[in-house]
Design a protein that fits this description.
Elements (H helix, E strand, L loop, with lengths): L1 H9 E4 L2 H8 L4 E7 L10 H11 L4 E7 L16 E6 L2 E7 L3 H21 L14 H16 L3 E2 L5 E6 L1 H5 L3 H10 L3 E8 L3 H7 L9 H8 L4 E7 L7 H9 L4 H7 L4 H5 L8 E3 L3 H11 L4 E3 L8 E11 L1 H17 L3 E8 L3 H7 L9 H8 L4 E9 L1 H9 L4 H7 L4 H4 L10 E3 L3 H11 L2 E8 L1 H4 L3 H10 L3 E8 L3 H7 L9 H8 L4 E9 L1 H9 L4 H7 L4 H5 L8 E3 L3 H12 L49
Parallel strand pairs: 1-3, 2-3, 6-11
Antiparallel strand pairs: 2-4, 4-5, 7-9, 7-10, 8-9, 11-12, 12-14, 12-15, 13-14, 16-18, 16-19, 17-18
Length: about 625
């Protein structure tokens, strides 16, 4: 109880419109943690706020929590699970931060408090900002659909123009500077060919900055770049400039803020950056990096070929690559190195063990061919490595790198091609695959990396202390939360939810545990959602989780095999059944498929796929369903 009183005295609790207006009238800087009734305030930052309050000891600094569900002014924040902090001075919004990023939160508090004191002491102008979250929902959705449509329509860049990727980083976005920066970019003569707001997952940030992996600041950079939304821009050069890359890098200034302020005081980083890590903007280092970064963020972007003779266009696109089992076992890293050396970005990657049925489904047009038994044996002899490669003209370039599909012909006509280099002795089936066309590539990628839904549950033992961290992990791992609800299960609901374990000795204990307090039910959507969520959870036994998956949720938060923090569906069929049980009939763009067996079979979409011995096939979850485990 004493702890709660301290927390209440630190943060004023705002639960209605009248209290909200009183908080906005408070003199000084007020930091508001906006929360939803179902999840409560962000407890993860309370100790940090108390530390800041004690260290600064400033009467002009105030903290508050505000329940969006009951405050009209915060209506636009309802139904969102990401921690959000609003900074108010003189009743005006001066900064916004999304995500419980402690270093960034502390820095913004110190900076905005100093600005507010200057306004109060010297009568300076207070710079108010607008939060994108307050934009009308319908207009925001329309804008997003419009932007997606623009991307899908494949904007064409003439061969006479160069391009670069620019990123307005999370620190500048959190301070409400995105629109201001975009105006300055346009005023300087840069042409914005495409743009989108996007929050990078940790995995995406690591992939994007893999060239900096050996630098000491790499982990901090990854955490920072995945801490909140960025604005991604494709820029073309200003008039009279042959290459936009050096022009843009000159405009943004050196990465080191002190150097930028000393040598390029008018540069964007000198004006908007605060330190080397928080330097506001990013620019591609050279044209090759610009091309890779373009493929990373805008895989459907189209550019005219620099070598075109007849007006044909080279596409920045994705293609499916398969490394078949015999070669995947021995030469995986060597082939991946050649893929990266060729300038491809690996947009998606997974290793899968295919069933005979899956091979037959994908190669349905060839099951009567003489070579099919060899193909079937090859494709089921071990794990297949599936990759979605992105790059300019990816389909055509990858096919050329692979060489002829016939192994003997590849050795004779193109001995340096990958199929010749990695041919297996006495094996007539080639060991690598590439899509035949852009359309086939998208079908095949969807086949291997389909969007899925899974049911996730934050169990009663984790709700009090670990809910916020688990929600952050979900968001940071790239899942979309399609639906969620917080509920206390009745005995009847718990028994029905775990009905498959009714005859097991632990059933009664499991039901009693699940009824003892609130839990949170979530529908998660992502490519390969079922197995990715199970990987994030880790093994059901926390001791095993600590030994084999020390970064998993259960390794970090579970206390024993019963109180193991989280639940996830074992396969797609179970996910569909449990989602229906908890949420009823819901509309979804994601088709849930599966046969309910240990290895989930994903049926092929688009059965008119053109397939030959060069073709890949669908994926299968290799994770076993623990039928005797109450903690899936």
């Amino acid at each position: 109880m004493a702890g709660k009183k301290k927390e209440a005295s630190l943060q004023a609790s705002v639960t209605n419109q009248e209290q909200w207006e009183e908080v906005l009238a408070t003199k000084g800087l007020t930091v508001v943690d906006v929360y939803q009734q179902w999840c409560g305030p962000c407890r993860a930052v309370v100790s940090l706020l108390r530390k800041i309050k004690n260290e600064l000891a400033d009467d002009l600094l105030h903290f508050a929590t505000a329940e969006a569900d009951s405050i009209d002014a915060l209506e636009r924040y309802r139904g969102k699970c990401e921690p959000t902090f609003l900074f108010y001075g003189g009743g005006e919004l001066v900064a916004v931060l999304r995500g419980a990023n402690a270093p960034l939160l502390q820095r913004i508090i110190v900076e905005e408090l100093a600005k507010e004191k200057l306004v109060l002491e010297q009568g300076g102008e207070r710079k108010a900002v607008k939060d994108d979250c307050l934009v009308d929902d319908e207009k925001r959705d329309e804008d997003k659909m419009s932007q997606q449509s623009e991307n899908e329509e494949s904007i064409i860049v003439p061969a006479s123009k160069s391009y670069t990727i620019a990123i307005i980083k999370p620190d500048a976005v959190a301070h409400g500077k995105a629109n201001e920066l975009i105006m300055k970019i346009q005023d300087a003569g840069f042409e914005i060919l495409a743009q989108e707001e996007r929050t990078l997952t940790e995995v995406e940030a690591r992939d994007f900055y893999q060239h900096k992996a050996e630098e000491a600041c790499f982990e901090d950079l990854v955490q920072f770049m995945s801490s909140g939304p960025s604005h991604i821009l494709v820029l073309s050069q200003v008039e009279g400039s042959d290459n936009v890359v050096p022009t843009w890098r000159e405009f943004i200034g050196p990465a080191d803020i002190e150097e930028a302020r000393r040598e390029k005081p008018q540069s964007l980083r000198a004006q908007y950056g605060t330190q080397t890590l928080f330097n506001a903007v990013h620019g591609s280092e050279d044209i090759d990096q610009a091309s890779r970064e373009l493929a990373f963020f805008f895989p459907n972007f189209r550019t005219a070929s620099a070598t075109e003779q007849d007006g044909e266009e080279e596409r920045v696109e994705r293609t499916l690559a398969l490394i078949r089992p015999d070669v995947a076992r021995e030469n995986r890293e060597e082939i991946l190195a050649q893929i990266h050396k060729s300038g491809f970005t690996v947009a998606l990657q997974k290793e899968v063990m295919l069933t005979e049925e899956q091979v037959r489904q994908f190669y349905f047009q060839h099951v009567e061919e003489d070579y099919f038994p060899l193909l079937l044996r090859s494709m089921t002899s071990g794990p297949v490595l599936a990759l979605a490669l992105a790059g300019a003209g990816a389909v055509h370039i990858w096919k050329n790198i692979l060489g002829p599909s016939d192994v003997n012909r590849a050795k004779e006509e193109s001995p340096d091609c990958l199929r010749a280099q990695f041919a297996v002795e006495n094996e007539p089936i080639n060991q690598l695959h590439g899509s035949e066309s852009h359309e086939e590539a998208e079908r095949e990628i969807s086949f291997f990396f389909p969007k899925q839904q899974t049911l996730a549950v934050i169990k009663p033992d984790a709700m009090e202390e670990h809910k916020e961290k688990i929600l952050e992990e979900i968001s940071g791992s790239g899942f979309s939360v399609t639906q969620l609800k917080e509920t206390v299960l009745s005995r009847e609901m718990a028994e029905e939810f775990y009905r498959e374990h009714r005859e097991k000795p632990f059933f009664k204990q499991l039901v009693e545990f699940m009824c003892q307090g609130p839990c949170m039910m979530l529908i998660l959507t992502k490519e390969n959602a079922v197995e990715e969520w199970r990987a994030i959870m880790g093994p059901a036994d926390p001791d095993q989780a600590k030994a084999t998956s020390p970064n998993s949720l259960r390794a970090r938060f579970a206390s024993d095999i019963l109180h193991n923090s989280v639940h996830g569906s074992s396969n797609e069929q179970q996910a569909e059944e449990k989602i229906h049980f908890i949420f009823g009939d819901i509309c979804s763009d994601t088709e849930l498929t599966g046969d309910g067996e240990t290895n989930t079979t994903v049926s092929a979409k688009g059965q008119d796929n053109s397939a030959d011995e060069n073709t890949g096939m669908s994926r299968s979850s290799t994770e076993e369903t623990s039928e005797g485990d109450p903690h899936n």
